């Protein structure tokens, strides 16, 4: 940590600068103190308000380190509430959230001018262990009991929101250097029983997967992927987070090994969860939106999963909503490109389902886009099993409802 945080102030000039800096912190905190004091929380949140007020800097505290740490934690909690869906943070007005974010930015700039260092980077070794501890306090204990009776789970949820806010504020060029501090805290969040805490931990991993080198995960690779698998059967409110996180992390860490057992395990866990409610619109849309990189990473190995994968696709081709239909058609196209559906007993069935959908699409809003995708898939299928395609297509060839489709396929085969 920086020298003045450690209390090693040496020269009178440095002492004067520190005094000015202390005063700057008090001035930044005052509007937040007043606004927080005048804000009335909803039922069930008074203890949370008291907790946040306890983070405000007392005017006569000589040690800058706890002042900086606590005020930064306060700003993070208030700023994170702006995008939070957690009920017990809904009482925080947008104006207070915006003021806290602005105050932290001013503090960060003042610190950079004073020390020529990044305040967030300097704070991480201090605040992340504190947040990790807050999350752990209300997690499940060694006897399998939830600790929420002893420590309010709201504190863990707030800590998770603070954690994500801090991580997403870090300069992307510096983010990789802090992964050894961030990843253990994110794993602790994933281990918590609360969906809100889990969801924030997942968002942190998604942020890391998009912005740091895959090598940053190497020390934690198996632990992270095991945590992904353990969380796939999560509640629906965080299903999209777990899908996106798992796909990003498994494709990043296993990118040169399509036969990795982690690809197999992640996909099997997801398919099992989807088969529990195969008609769930929310589950299928979230999954189809994010699954393409995993299909690409596995390539020809996907053939081993056709028994559970393609029957789901066939169901979803006839979903009531156009969004699902378009997404599943895109996924089918990806699977065909990487497997050419070789040696599959589903080849004829796929053609029949696509033809049925092509005709049914006349009643859909997205009929033009649906039919364009079907044509692209049929053109891909045609050369991969030429004679078998002709045999499957011949029974549909003279269907008057397919008059606009047949010439395109005939042209491709000539």
TrEMBL record:
Query: Superkingdom of the source?
Result: Eukaryota
Region Disordered, as annotated, extends over 36-56
List where the protein spans the membrane: none
Which spans does this entry mark as compositional bias, Polar residues? Answer: 36-53
**UniProt name for this protein:** Putative ARM repeat superfamily protein
Protein source organism? Helianthus annuus
């Amino acid at each position: 940590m920086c020298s003045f945080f450690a209390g090693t102030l040496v020269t009178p000039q440095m002492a004067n600068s520190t005094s000015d800096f202390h005063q700057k912190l008090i001035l930044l905190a005052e509007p937040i103190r007043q606004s927080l004091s005048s804000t009335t929380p909803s039922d069930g949140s008074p203890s949370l308000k008291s907790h946040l007020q306890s983070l405000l800097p007392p005017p006569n505290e000589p040690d800058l380190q706890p002042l900086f740490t606590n005020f930064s934690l306060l700003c993070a909690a208030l700023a994170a509430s702006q995008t939070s869906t957690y009920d017990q943070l809904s009482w925080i007005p947008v104006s207070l959230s915006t003021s806290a974010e602005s105050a932290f930015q001013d503090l960060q700039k003042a610190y950079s001018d004073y020390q020529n260092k990044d305040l967030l980077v300097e704070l991480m070794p201090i605040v992340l262990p504190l947040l990790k501890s807050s999350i752990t306090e209300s997690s499940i204990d060694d006897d399998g009991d939830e600790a929420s009776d002893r420590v309010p789970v709201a504190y863990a949820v707030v800590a998770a929101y603070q954690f994500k806010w801090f991580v997403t504020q870090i300069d992307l060029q510096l983010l990789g250097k802090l992964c050894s501090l961030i990843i253990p805290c994110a794993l602790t969040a994933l281990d918590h029983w609360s969906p809100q805490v889990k969801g924030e931990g997942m968002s942190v991993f998604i942020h890391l997967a998009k912005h740091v080198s895959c090598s940053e995960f190497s020390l934690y690779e198996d632990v992270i992927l095991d945590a992904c698998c353990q969380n796939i059967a999560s509640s629906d409110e965080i299903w999209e987070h777990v899908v996106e996180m798992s796909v990003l992390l498994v494709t990043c860490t296993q990118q040169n090994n399509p036969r990795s057992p982690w690809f197999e395990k992640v996909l099997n866990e997801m398919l099992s969860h989807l088969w529990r409610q195969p008609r769930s619109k929310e589950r299928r849309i979230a999954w189809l939106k994010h699954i393409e990189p995993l299909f690409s990473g596995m390539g020809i190995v996907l053939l081993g999963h056709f028994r559970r994968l393609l029957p789901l696709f066939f169901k979803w081709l006839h979903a009531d909503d156009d969004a699902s239909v378009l997404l599943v058609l895109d996924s089918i196209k990806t699977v065909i490109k990487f497997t050419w559906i070789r040696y599959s007993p589903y080849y004829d069935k796929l053609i029949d389902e696509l033809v049925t959908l092509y005709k049914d699409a006349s009643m859909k809003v997205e009929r033009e886009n649906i039919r364009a995708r079907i044509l692209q898939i049929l053109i891909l299928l045609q050369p991969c099993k030429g004679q078998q395609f002709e045999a499957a297509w011949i029974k549909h060839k003279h269907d008057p409802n397919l008059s606009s489709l047949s010439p395109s396929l005939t042209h491709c085969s000539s």
